[in-house]
Structure formats: structure tokens, C-alpha cells
Design goal:
By secondary structure, this protein is mainly alpha-helical. About 55% of the residues lie in helices and about 5% in strands. It has a two-stranded antiparallel ribbon. Helix 2 packs across helix 5. About 30% of the residues are buried. About 5% of the residues have low confidence.
Amino acid sequence: MNEQWTVDMFLMFDLKRPNILPVGDLGVRKGMSRHFGFTGKKAAKGKGKGVSGVYLPSPEEMREAGKVWEPYRSIGSYFMWSIIDDK
């Protein structure tokens, strides 16, 4: 997953691609969890990982939820980073 994260960051920041959703990025996962209201109940069923009380959605759940941002998923990702920085 590390290589894909590197590719996603290159596409977003260097090539300015507007429709990249970095599903391997911890910040985007945490932001999507907060923004879309993913709950820990799903983690209890084994669908995702819970980290310090925060449910982290799976890549499939992120892709499904991120469909509302197409074709600008990169911008949605920027907002997810800002959500977790705004504590």
C-alpha cells in the first residue's frame, strides 16, 4: 500500500490531478470517518479497524463514500485533512 500512497501523492500534488482519492492515507481515512459518521459498530463486525476510538473505513467504504466528490475527489481529500487538523 506504501507505493500506491506515493503514487497518489505524486498525482495530487505534482501533476495536480483532480480526481484522486488516497485510500491508504491515514489522515483522509480519519477525516472521512468523522465527516461521513462511520461508527465503531462496523469495526466490531470486522469490517474495519478501530484506532484510539476512531473507526477507520476500509478502502472499499472510502471509494463508495467518495463517489459524491467525483470528479473532484482530490479536493475532498484536502478537506478531509483539514477536518482532522481542526481540533
